[in-house]
Specification:
This protein is α/β, with parallel strands linked by helices. The chain contains nine helices and seven strands. Helix content is 36%, strand content 14%.
Length: 286
């Protein structure tokens, strides 16, 4: 029996552009999502494209979304709880930016606010105005992306922020900042888990994994594989996105029947010609 659900009138979409974002792949990914699940877990939330797509259908489920990036999760909870204040602050950012884009951008990049609204608005502002919408930090956790080449960036997408705030209000949605292993401790039979980690690099130059102050390296990929196997033994349905790399193919060889190759464009790349023609993997245990 298929799960019944309704579609929200104004569907929210990601409020940040995130490396590895899944908006363009939603038609493919959604074909591999179970029709019914009791609980949904997504511990590498990022821009949240898959989550927003599913929760907008008003499925009768409990939602557990998380990420290890503190500022990102703070932005989600700020949009949920204090969206009008956030919009007001973003409007001020926009006004100052258009007066002197270069000066104001680097002033805000250097800034390290402590207030919740200021931290969240800074993340959104920098994401909307930095080069290629890339979120990247150095080993000290400092945002280090240069100014983008935009004529008129959409810094304040008020309608979308309000839509996100509305969709995050229900008490059956949990938003936390935590490592994926902690986030998945309570997964059980009947649950669905979508894993979208920083991808295993396919070459020495394609090694972007710096979403936080530390890289997500091959040892982390092995931790993730161990968790995938553990979830499989618990009877959960698991879907994983990752690169088509030898390391990932070797790790998941026992799940070879559930490996699907898909074509994907990488929209965060400094060379536009390198944003097309890539193959990545979906790996599932069901």
């Amino acid at each position: 029996m298929k799960q019944e659900y309704q579609v929200i009138a104004v569907a929210p979409k990601p409020f940040v552009k995130w490396a590895g974002g899944k908006r363009q792949l939603l038609p493919v990914i959604t074909r591999h999502i179970p029709d019914r699940f009791e609980r949904y877990y997504e511990p590498f939330l990022g821009g949240g494209a898959v989550f927003f797509n599913l929760v907008s259908q008003d499925r009768k489920a409990k939602w557990f979304i998380s990420d290890v990036n503190y500022d990102l999760i703070l932005s989600y909870t700020t949009i949920r709880d204090r969206v009008k204040e956030l919009i007001s602050t973003l409007e001020a950012h926009a006004a100052n930016y258009f007066k002197s884009p270069n000066t104001y951008y680097y002033k805000m990049r250097k800034n390290n606010p402590k207030d919740q609204i200021d931290k969240a608005s800074r993340l959104v502002f920098l994401n909307k105005t930095c080069f290629n919408g890339l979120y990247r930090v150095n080993s000290k956790g400092k945002f280090n992306v240069p100014l983008g080449r935009y004529v008129h960036p959409n810094i304040v997408n008020k309608e979308n922020l309000l839509a996100i705030s509305r969709v995050l209000q229900p008490k059956n949605i949990s938003i936390k900042c935590q490592d994926f292993e902690d986030a998945l401790k309570n997964v059980g039979v009947g649950d669905f888990v979508y894993l979208d980690p920083p991808y295993q690099p396919v070459s020495a130059t394609a090694n972007f994994t710096s979403y936080t102050g530390r890289n997500f390296d091959y040892q982390d990929q092995k931790r993730l594989f161990a968790k995938f196997k553990s979830l499989d033994r618990k009877g959960a349905k698991v879907l994983l996105s990752n690169s088509k790399s030898k390391e990932i193919l070797d790790l998941f060889k026992e799940f070879a029947k559930g490996i699907i190759e898909i074509n994907a464009n990488r929209f965060i790349n400094s060379v536009s010609q390198k944003r097309i023609g890539h193959t990545e993997l979906l790996i599932k245990n069901f």
